[in-house]
Amino acid sequence: MNTTLRRLFLASCFTLLGACSDSSDNTTPSATSATELFAASIRRTEYGIPHIQAEDWGSLGYGFGYAYSQDNFCILMKEIVIASGRTAELMGEGDSDIEQDLFWVYLNGSRETFYNETIVNVPQRVQDLTGGFAQGVNRYLKDTGAENLAEGCRNQPWVFEIDEFDLFRHLRRIALEGSSDQGLIRQALQSVTAPDASSTVESLERISPSEGEGLRQLGAMLNPDDRGSNAIVAGRNATQTGSSVLLGNPHQGWGERRGRVYQAHLTIPGEYDVAGGTLQGLPFLAFGFSRDVAWTHTVDFAGRFTLYELKLNPDNPFEYEYEGTMRPIVGETVSALVRTDSGALETREKTFYRSHFGMILDLGGIEPLLGGWPIFNGNLLTIRDANLLTGLRTPEEFLNKSMAVNMAEYEAALVNMGNPAFHEIAADRHGEIFYGQTSATPHVTAAKLEACGDGPAGTGTPVSGLIADLTSNVILGLDGSRSACEWGEDPDSPPGTNVFGLANRAVIRGGGTAANANDSYWLSDPDNPLTGFPIIMGWRSPEGSQQTLRTRITHQMVADRLTGADELSASPKFDLDTMKALMYANRVYGAEIALDDTLEICETFATLPPADVTDDQLTILDRACAVLAAWDRRVNLDSRGAQVFTEYWRELRSVIGVDQFQPVLNNPTFWLVDFDPNEPITTPRHIDQSVPENSELVGRALIAAGERLIENNVPFEAPWRDVQFLERNGVPFPIHGGNGQTGVFGAITVSLSEGGYRNPASGNSYIQVVTWDESECPIADVILTHSQSSDPASPHYGDQTRLYADKRWIRYPFCEADIVAAQIGETLVLEGPRVFPGRPDAAN
Questions:
Q1: Which pLDDT tens digit goes with each residue over 582-615?
Q2: Which long-range contacts does 798-803 make (Cβ < 8 Å, 24+ apart)?
Q3: Does residue 215 register a pLDDT over 70?
Q4: Is the C-alpha dihedral spanning 71, 74, 77, 82 positive or negative?
Q5: 3-state secondary structure labels for all residues of 776-835
Q6: Fewer CB near the last or first residue (10 Å), C or N of the chain?
Q7: pLDDT tens digits, residue range 383-410?
């Protein structure tokens, strides 16, 4: 511990009972070598933001783990239990998922195996940071006691001390959330049942081919259109000041899951100084800013995995052909404990199988065409997942990029390809910006897909090409019998990963603008489209295809700001205030392109309605149309009528249907102006009133919307503040923003229920607008919509939610003087034994 920190520590010990001791008697610790102790200070500023300072990585993690646990201990413990495969053992058979437990036991292996094959290869500072974080969590548990934890985990049998091994398993699970741990894929991996060892392929019963509808549904389910994020960055040529301005708006979960965001400021003097937000339980910051750089992410719907179609040995279903020889399919049996209703512990076992590509899977629960061992054509499917190792590269990449002082250094940090699932958007104080499709994407070129996408020859009816066709390339299948069909690599691909290197990615640099709202890289700058990249890099709204309404409103707002057409300021281009105003503008783009036509159709439909439309329904139609005519076409708290449009648009999408893989209204007879790839931001638009079916469609959709609102006791004309809200300790906080499918930039994901749109599941979460001036301190205005703590007893359970409701911001205190001015409460200084119990003895 350095002199300054030790003085601070000794002074604080007199006022902070229990905070300075690693034993239960609250005695002042003796002077000990810094190599034998963790030592960190925690200062809180307004709204519960912790500023953690330490002299080394292990101590920084120690302080961060403690601070995080003060606010959200229960969330992390639940996630640790899941990743460790112990839910059935610790939570009981009725509140757990034994199949999921067995899956994670198999995927992570034993502690010794996981450490020696994975953790030992992680850079030392990452191991120290993670190990320190785990010990900080344990310190909080020790200081607090299981009986005094938040209500969600107080005295629960699934609360225990953790180590870095537990956290690395948690990191792996987060990395696989967009691939092998997606519910449908995990189900397919868990559903495999092997044939009898004495069987031959020819003797095994097979399921007859179907129409493939299940595969279409699978592709759509892997491509949800109600999740994601927004980001806008403006460089020196697009700002009023010449400094960059970045808006980060990740749409994350608001409940007690790992997707929820937590704010923090982490500092090692002279080495590391970064503030921002991270997903719950991560020991590093996922998005944020430093003195010189700011960055954010949006979910990237690119490929994370491919299937391989295996040509089985006709005489042995446990062997497959590869380059003319037979390779074994290897089984491994794992076990997990289950606590039954009687309290007894039972052991459950399951055998998982793998090829050299990866795990065998059975998609029969989703698509009978692909069920069984073998599938109908005598082959078998296996999966290779690029993210199995990504999570172990993620922390180092995020540390490196947050320590960059300019965009060149930031970009250099990305060569690690430790980004599991996100578009990368960043800026520096010098006016430079960066956009990149840099997530872990299998190296499958267009040429390789053409050569290998039909599956192995000589097997009757290969299904690899069928899989790609039926899922619009959401899932790619390759020939598993040829080495030429293995994933390739670039000169700058991280060793052993077989993902595309940075040099072959879709990238934007310079001083202009870039934006992304979860569609592909193609139009991240509509004035300079990115083209010529393989489909696996962007299967959602790919090159030349229709874009989602949220992407269109994002780019429309950027264009309006560059010209000043939005009237957010007297001058065009961006600055801090106009970027903030844009974030809270709450325009509804679906209304901008379709409401005028809808109102005209209201009149014609009411004049000559179909015979089966009742008088009561016509009354509902009149009410709905009158409200929509007066609506301001926004989802601000005082907007009246947004609920009518939201349900109307939901009904249109339900009746017309949307493109399953590019979630847009794609009916060619509905739009007056069809999609034009040369005008992708402004097309399609306007309802074609010359098509009689459209008039009936719109009229009935409005009636259905009104009936749904009446059924749920939601007044048509009620202000949005009374309709959409988040409850905190019985108090409803009004939430502005709205349904992203209607073209709302500030997307909120919530279903209609009794009384309105209650308690959103996700949406705008940690929002940051960052820029710079001539001073050393970055200028960052932020808000965490769901607030910092998940504990209802915490003063920070809903305080930022109230700010968000009022469209207010927090000026993030970054430099020392600002932290001192904003500090609440006393400084907490922690000191504890420097131990890493998750490592072998020789590693401590």
A1: 999 999 999 999 999 999 999 999 999 999 999 9
A2: 798/726, 798/728, 798/729, 798/731, 798/733, 799/47, 799/48, 800/47, 801/726, 801/728, 801/733, 802/733, 803/47
A3: no
A4: negative
A5: CCCEEEEEECCCCCCCCCCCCCCHHHHHHHCCCCEECCCCHHHHHHHEEEEEEEEEEECC
A6: C
A7: 999 999 888 899 999 999 999 999 999 9
